[in-house]
Amino acid sequence: MRSLSVEQLNLINSMANKHKAIALISGGLDSMLAVKVIQEQGIEVEGINFYTGFCVEGHTHAIRNQDKEKQKRNNALWVAEQLGIKLHIVDVIEEYKDVLINPKHGYGANMNPCLDCKIFMVNKAVDWIEEHHAQGFDFIITGEVIGQRPMSQLKAKMPIIAKQSGANDRLVRPLSAKNLEQTLPEREGWIVREKLYGFTGRSRKPQIELAKQFGFDDFATPAGGCCFLTDKSYSDKLTDLWQAKNAKEYELDDIMLLKVGRHVRPKANFKLIIARDSGECKFLEGYRKEFISIRALSHKGPMALVDGDIDEGDYDLAASIVARFGQGKFADEVELDINIPEQPSLQISTAPFANENMLQEWYL
Ligand code: SF4
Prior knowledge:
16% strand, elongated, binds iron/sulfur cluster
């Protein structure tokens, strides 16, 4: 990675008479405010948003019937539009695997490797400004607030992110800057420290107050974090996936399917992904060419995928569980279709699975 000296940065930017910043944009309020604070100082900002595959928005909201009323917008793009900045959306699905599978700083309350994730993303932003230094980009901003999240936003963790990402003093956190060491843009006078903020803690009040001052009355406030990895149920399913594979590895389809349906593992060699509504049924239909799928014929019922190496001897068990979730739940017998990719499908009749205690134990 090529790193320019302060003198070189000053020379380049004094020729153009301006400095520019790249901002990590999650789509939430904090990054939106951080950009606005820097824009107010006359700095041109562009945004960067990293797609890891675990992002919350725009997936389940787009699929589940119960979320039909929710806005389907991509919040990162929407924030960029509100701020009038260009947004670069970068696919980091492959590179992110190592962050999640081998986090040097470990996981948070669930499978969220927040500290490694932040270091990774800021490091990608460092690469980006190195590649775009000719256009005047010379520092990075994030919406981090000291003490807001337990793992990555503790005051002691802020310098770790700056150092291990390689950003060092080119990383500015406009919302908490007054409680942190001076950064290069402050020292060099590109931005004025007094016009930055000193927010700390979990309360969102100062941010909401600042949003009002800037005239923002619509913004996303994601609960728990910006990705599925902070969610316990999702994390349990991811852990189960790795146990079943006997390896910590995944493909994009694996992690997408963890976001959808009820997951039931009756045996170590297979699990069922059972749609919870018609939206999820349609989504799972898209996987029928890759997975064995089961659906009731005699009664209305959900679509289910079979994930794993199911034995023929397990078909009856799998079909009886799927029958339990349809309108044939209380019938003596339900007829079901088992669709096997590139093979003739099977029709079987079975009694719906009735042992509720056992079923509860099999839920992931
Ligand atoms: S919540 Fe997810 S995207 Fe956000 S820092 Fe943690 S691991 Fe990364």
